[in-house]
Amino acid sequence: MAIEFNQASLDEALKSGKPVLVDFWAEWCGPCRMVGPIVNELSAEYENKAVIGKVNVDENKEISAKYGIRNIPTILFFNNGELVDKIVGAAAKSSFTEKLDGLVK
Asked: What's residue 48's pLDDT?
């Protein structure tokens, strides 16, 4: 299951040295409900290789503002603590795995 990030746990994940995928979502968002199960699958598939988590934009407005999230779902990809890529909107699982595979060593 994907981690529910807050500011502290996200900061910790970004310092882990592993690639980090962050799904910005909300309960009322239809496309987010399509992406959510994919993110949970990725969490299991990339266990010990990457940190996979979610940020509820309604509960974590400061994190959303920090990364300029204007549309959801938005999925951010970090490597070595730096933002390296993103996907805005619902996408196929292969889009996520392609980006993660490029980051996982």
From this structure: 93
Catalytic residues: 29, 32
56-73 per-residue burial string, b: 16 or more CB within 10 A, e: under 16: bbeebeebbeebebeebb
Bridge partners of residue 45, in order along the sequence: none
pTM for the full model? 0.95
Dihedral (C-alpha) 10, 11, 17, 20: value to the nearest 10 degrees? 30
Classify residue 46 as exposed, middle or buried by CB count within 10 Å of its CB (0-12, 13-18, 19+). buried
* Size of the chain, expressed as the number of residues it contains: 105
Which of 25, 1, 5, 24 minimizes the C-alpha distance to 13?
5
Q: What is the CATH number of domain 3-103?
A: 3.40.30.10
In the prediction, which pLDDT does 105 show?
A: 75
pLDDT (tens digit, 9 = 90+) per residue, 17-71? Answer: 999 999 999 999 999 999 999 999 999 999 999 999 999 999 999 999 999 999 9
Domain assignments of the chain as residue spans, ordered by start? 3-103
